[in-house]
Design goal:
Layout lengths: L5 E6 L7 H15 L3 E5 L1 H6 L12 H12 L2 E9 L2 E2 L1 H9 L15 E8 L2 H17 L3 E2 L4 E4 L14 H24 L4
Parallel strand pairs: 1-2, 1-3, 3-5, 5-6, 5-7
Antiparallel strand pairs: 3-4
Helix pairs in contact: 1-6
């Protein structure tokens, strides 16, 4: 890891300007303020990913870009809308695509902190989706941060400048980002040299 950890944000919806992607952008800004470099793979990127096919085949440029970003990441923030009690199809497809890293020395999210952000139209959907995403991160060998942000998108979350309307939402997104950066930095100090 360089002096500044790389935090990769994956998420959003295929709708431009979605509340999920806005939330992820706010979190990545907070990660930058905490000393990280950041990279966003948002909704437009997710829309270009083909449906993952586990049969041996040549990966597309977008699939390779996603795998390369995760390989380079010191930490990750995943943001998904809550659809019918779970994560969206495009988000699940992106996470399934990480199967391309299965033969790596450090596959999937192994050993990396992963922050979670959920936007949903109601608290029940936000809660069940957050739990589903945390379970997937465990399956991908990641370390979910202790705090996961759950935002109720039933109300207008962001102003015209893309900032949170409610201080509690800004706090949630900053907390996720700060925990990912802090744990990435701690992990770097524990890694053996040479």
């Amino acid at each position: 890891m360089s002096a500044r950890p790389l935090i990769v944000g994956i998420g959003g919806t295929i709708r431009p300007g979605s509340s999920t992607e806005r939330a992820l952008t706010v979190a990545l800004r907070a990660a930058g303020a905490a000393g990280a470099e950041t990279q966003l793979l948002g909704g437009a990127f997710l829309a270009r990913l083909p449906i993952f096919d586990p049969r041996p085949a040549r990966a597309t440029a977008e699939q390779e870009e996603l795998a390369a970003a995760i390989r380079a990441a010191d930490g990750v923030i995943v943001a998904s809308p809550g659809y019918h009690g779970s994560i969206s199809g495009v988000m699940k497809n992106a996470l399934d695509t990480l199967e391309l890293t299965r033969e790596d020395v450090t596959p999937y999210f192994q050993g990396r902190p992963v922050g979670t952000i959920i936007t949903a139209d109601g608290w029940q959907a936000a809660g069940t989706t957050l739990m589903a995403l945390r379970a997937i991160i465990h399956a991908l060998r990641g370390w979910p941060t202790p705090f996961g942000a759950a935002l109720n998108a039933g109300a207008s979350l962001f102003d015209e400048a893309g900032e949170c309307r409610e201080p509690k939402d800004a706090w949630q997104l900053a907390t996720v980002a700060e925990q990912v950066v802090e744990f990435a930095q701690l992990r770097a100090t524990k890694e053996p040299v040479g």
